[in-house]
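Tip: read the tokens left to right.
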């Protein structure tokens, strides 16, 4: 039986995608391909310098948006983006394997307002690293103190709203458990929910504290 060249070619490409994530990156409009390990980097600013640091390896990119295969870097991976008149943004990435938010908090995994909604489609199938990452830099130079304070008040409001949404998701999950009449010794569900909410409040407090440090350290020109 003769097998067409096109059939063999498609079979080889499919096998390549399956075992190594070697799909070519595509534009953000149709989304990343199912087996891709590339991360699509976007930002609300332009002309950023982004550095991706793994063990003994650094990759630099200046154009935004861009694709990068973070899975080639050894863990832990640190992303640092910078621009004049803005504070540096540093993100530490770790593989995400568990997608239940309550369980992630219980296990002490890295939880941010950005990755709290991640699911299996949000990360590379092999690396567990995010397939899309939006970088937000905060200004550190203002014409007046009033302009600075108004800017950081908006940032603080946005931060609270993001973490409130995470807390609401936790509370909703806890209410579902309660409605299902799941009873465990010493009310373990309730205790887990309380601890999770406590961690969320701690993360919110840390983010607000960082905002205040940046506000005070900003320049007035």
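Filled-in amino acids:
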């Amino acid at each position: 039986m003769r097998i067409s060249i096109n059939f063999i070619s498609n079979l080889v490409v499919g096998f390549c995608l399956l075992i190594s994530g070697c799909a070519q990156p595509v534009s953000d409009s149709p989304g990343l391909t199912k087996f891709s390990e590339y991360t699509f980097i976007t930002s609300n600013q332009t002309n950023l310098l982004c550095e991706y640091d793994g063990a003994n390896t650094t990759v630099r990119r200046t154009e935004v948006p861009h694709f990068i295969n973070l899975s080639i870097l050894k863990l832990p991976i640190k992303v640092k983006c910078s621009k004049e008149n803005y504070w540096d943004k540093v993100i530490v990435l770790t593989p995400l394997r568990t997608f239940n938010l309550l369980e992630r908090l219980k296990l002490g995994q890295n939880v941010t307002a950005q990755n709290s909604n991640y699911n299996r489609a949000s990360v590379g199938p092999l690396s567990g690293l995010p397939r899309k990452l939006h970088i937000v830099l905060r200004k550190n130079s203002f014409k007046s103190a009033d302009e600075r304070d108004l800017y950081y008040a908006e940032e603080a409001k946005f931060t609270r709203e993001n973490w409130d949404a995470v807390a609401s998701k936790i509370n909703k999950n806890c209410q579902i458990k309660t409605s299902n009449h799941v009873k465990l010794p010493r009310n373990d569900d309730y205790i887990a929910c309380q601890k999770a909410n406590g961690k969320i409040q701690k993360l919110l407090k840390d983010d607000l504290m960082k905002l205040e440090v940046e506000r005070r350290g900003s320049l007035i020109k």
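The chain has two domains: 5-135, 141-220. The longest strand covers residues 49-54.
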